[in-house]
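Students often ask why we bother encoding 3D structure as a string. The short answer is that it lets us treat folding as translation between two languages. Here is a chain of 424 residues written in the first language.
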Amino acid sequence: MNKYFHSVELEADLCCGCTNCLKRCPTEAIRVHGGKAKILSERCIDCGECIRICPHHAKKAHTSTLEEIQGYKYKVAIPAPALFGQFNRLDNVDIVLTGLKKIGFDDVFEVSRGAELVSEATRKLIKENKLNKPIISSACPAVVRLIKTRFPELCDNVMPLKAPMEVTARIARREAMKKTGLSSEEIGVFFITPCPAKVTEIHSPNYSESSAVDGAIAISKIYPELTLAMDHLTEVENISQSGLIGIGWATSGGEAAAMLGDKYLAADGIENVIRVLEELEDEHIRDVEFIELNACSGGCVGGVLTVENPYVARARISTLRKYLPVSMNHLEEDQISKMMWENELEYDADIYRLDEDIVKAMSMMSEMEGILAGLPGLDCGSCGAPTCRAMAEDMVRGKAKESDCIHRLKAKIQNVYDQLKNTI
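And here it is in the second language, the structure alphabet:
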């Protein structure tokens, strides 16, 4: 049984082996052999970059459908604040929330409400000065998994607070049970998601054994039906209970700004995130208390499951926030303890281990370095691996051969040709 769940999937029939995804993957989780890409399950962080870059639409995200909510007696939608940036000239969040009820949900509970609680909890934890600084936000699951796979020394710096999605789901479920008298199993809580990493977090959470969310529906899937419902509303319900702090989480810098201080850093886009993490690992970043990192450019509004240009969506969020109070949600007594992670974030050593036997692993490492020294160092991707080092690793693992490197193969052919020419 595969212990790694992934929402990002490959449709092999559509794959042309173009290597675009290979070069874009931040964890070198893709190989191309036999004219088809393959995703290495143990290394994939479900950031969705391969979905974004694939010109043939061979990568897709597996998400829930609107039909699946019918399996529950009471259906609750918990929309990401990024959803509000998808609609032109939106001046009232309640229009979107009422629209969600029109397309089949019995109730709506904004994730921005949970975001305000997480922001307040973070401020209190920073003030208590009990966490390793700089503290790295745990809100983006792709970033958390990136740290888990590539930057193990930074695991202790990740904020041990559940993300707003999870905090919101638990409160929404509890309120729904109280309101309806139904059991937890009869209530379905569905996240309206901008990215595939959130889907993975629901099925395989970093913070606990299970999630309070029953499924995630992509914004892109729900958008047409939701837009139609919003266009035909005759009455708008007064549902929204979040302020500018919560909705600000939709864009890069929104979470960091909610710290209400100046010792923070915010970066978005997977390349920038990696650069910041590398500098953190090398201890080049100082005098910063809190770091917000978003794998998608622009923040959650840039997720691959959204429909709008992230910078247009970001501008819309900025305009929408002008009409909102600062915050409408505040922590109850002892609520922080319920929001803390139940599991510690640990480095998955199996990902890069060459062999269980340490002596054999060291021998394979030495062999790998020897192979690498003989490769051209171009990192061209033509062999089906993203870099020459990855190619050398694949070779010692028995998953690639020397002739896969077209430059080595070309050199051999040229050598044979020269020898034949000299004998004539």
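Translate back mentally: The longest strand covers residues 187-193. Keep this in mind for the problem set.
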